[in-house]
Amino acid sequence: MTPEHQADPVLTGEQRAAEARRLRDRFTWLNQFTDQELQEICFCATGAEMRAGETYFDISHPELGPFEAEPGQIVPEGACLVQKGTVPERLWTKLISYPSRR
Question: For residue 46, how far is the Cα from the chain centroid?
Answer without folding.
Answer: 12
